[in-house]
Amino acid sequence: MANELEKNSMYIENGEANKNFDDDGRQRRTGTVVTASAHIITAVIGSGVLSLAWAIAQLGWVAGPAVLMAFSFITYLTSTFLADSYRHDGRRNYTYMDVVRSHLGGYKVQLCGLAQYGNLVGVTIGYTITVSISMVAVKRSNCFHKEGHNAECSISNYPFMAIFAGIQLILSQIPNFHELSWLSIVAAVMSFAYSSIGLALSIAKLAGGGGHVETSLTGTRVGVDTSGSEKVWNSFQAIGDIAFAYAYSTVLIEIQA
């Protein structure tokens, strides 16, 4: 790898192959604003947005938007920090660990690796479980429609976990998978699609007279909608859901690279 970079740098110094290599000797980047935007939308906007309506309902029209704006500002601020850390002493940092190595160094790089990959493993497990639960919910819904609501319709999550994990293993073998910008574009469209579906269903419920929906400045009311302890628990859970929806994305460095 070092020899390749040295060779590429030599080509650049000699004025050759400038069209094929960046100023640091690596293959010239081919990303555009569209592909970068698609990658960022895919990385930042996830399924967490689906819980925002419930979170706002718990916190109310004062605390809910305030927490929403606070976490959006935190995401913007940390993303700006990552963007500013892309170069250090004239050298590009291509990964999050490269940034930590350039600015902190030492054992902090290992701690960063443990935290980052531990987070990725946890998120992967979480999505695998979420996918299996969602598929089971679809199967149970179809079963209830077919057999009636008194049917047992007991369905195991494990086969769906195995199927999803198998698909992930297969897709992870594709070389240069991170360069498939069309995949992020599809994912970005899907993110907007299921967000729009949730919004449309909410509007349809209000417009269709599906029951009187009450909202308040303080969210759910103690003694009417819930107990005091449940109010506290749901409020903290709502804050956690909003924080999850605005997840800190370490892959922004890779997108910028």
Order of helices and strands: HHHEEHHHHHH
Number of strands: 2
Number of helices: 9
How far apart lie the N and C ends? 18 Å
Helical/strand content category = mainly alpha
Over all CA atoms, what is the radius of gyration? 23 Å
The largest sheet has its strands arranged as 1-2
Shape: globular
Beta-strand residue fraction: under 5%
In which range does the helix fraction lie? 55-70%
Keywords: Amino-acid transport, Membrane, Transmembrane, Transmembrane helix, Transport
Domain Amino acid transporter transmembrane: 29-256
Subcellular location: Membrane
InterPro entries: AA_transpt_TM (IPR013057)
Topology readout:
Layout: H1 2-13, H2 33-44, H3 52-84, E1 87-88, E2 91-92, H4 96-103, H5 107-147, H6 158-171, H7 181-207, H8 228-245, H9 252-256
Antiparallel strand pairs: 1-2
Overview of the structural elements:
The chain crosses the membrane at residues 36-56, 62-83, 155-174, 180-201. It is found in: Membrane. InterPro entries: AA_transpt_TM. Keywords: Amino-acid transport, Membrane, Transmembrane, Transmembrane helix, Transport. Pfam families: Aa_trans. With 257 residues, this protein is mainly α. It has one domain (31-256). The chain is 66% helix and 2% strand. It contains nine helices and two strands. The chain has helices spanning 2-13, 33-44, 52-84, 96-103, 107-147, 158-171, 181-207, 228-245, 252-256; strands at 87-88, 91-92. The chain has a two-stranded antiparallel sheet. A hairpin with a 2-residue loop joins strand 1 and strand 2 (91-92). Helix 4 packs antiparallel against helix 5 (107-147). The longest helix has 41 residues, at 107-147. The protein is globular, with a radius of gyration of 23 Å.
